[in-house]
Design a protein that fits this description.
Structural class: mainly beta
Number of helices: 1
Largest sheet: 9 strands, antiparallel
Shape: globular
Strand order of the largest sheet: 8-7-6-5-4-3-2-1-12
Number of strands: 12
Helix content: under 10%
Number of domains: 1
Strand content: over 45%
Oligomer: single chain
Distance between the termini: 15 Å
Length: 164
């Protein structure tokens, strides 16, 4: 039997925002879910899937601006998805390369779990998607360091087993 990582936890980002997270690893890879809150208000929530090799496979991001889905095509030449806003659906497509990942601007946790290994698009919390090379990182957007399991290191971190 494989010892899959199945944990949940909480902690704070360097800007003081609270992160609640879970990770469930299985035969198809890892699935991360997380929320980022300031006080009682949820700033955003997300889901990232990594395949069995640890490559980025899917992003779902929910913010006050709407809901975004983005995933690479089978040939890894494009990533596509859509943005659902209060006034309709906007299909999106950006250049992709095998081994690429995403930066989530304003979310060091999401950027860290996305497995930022290669160039790829960046996504802002207003759901603007910028192709690789047009990244607009601000202070606090950089990825967090990971522990030996690949879990981001948060301030005041706590964690628990995630029961299946």
């Amino acid at each position: 039997m494989t010892d899959w990582l199945r944990r949940a936890g909480s902690g704070r980002l360097p800007d003081g925002a609270l992160v609640l997270w879970s990770v469930a690893e299985g035969a198809r890879g890892r699935r991360w879910r997380w929320t980022v809150s300031i006080g009682e208000a949820v700033r955003h929530a997300g889901l990232i899937e990594l395949d069995r090799e640890g490559r980025f496979a899917r992003l779902e991001l929910e913010t006050a601006a709407g809901m975004l889905t983005l995933h690479p095509d089978d040939d890894h030449a494009l990533a596509h998805g859509n943005i659902v806003r209060h006034d309709g659906v906007q299909p999106i497509s950006v250049a992709w390369s095998d081994g690429a990942s995403v930066v989530i601007e304003g979310d060091a946790f999401g950027t860290a779990v996305a497995g930022r290994r290669g160039r790829g698009p960046s996504v802002a919390l207003d759901l603007t998607v910028r192709p690789a090379g047009e990244e607009s990182l601000r202070v606090g957007d950089e990825s967090l360091p990971l522990d030996e399991r690949g879990v981001p290191r948060l301030v005041d971190a706590r964690e628990w087993p995630l029961e299946a």
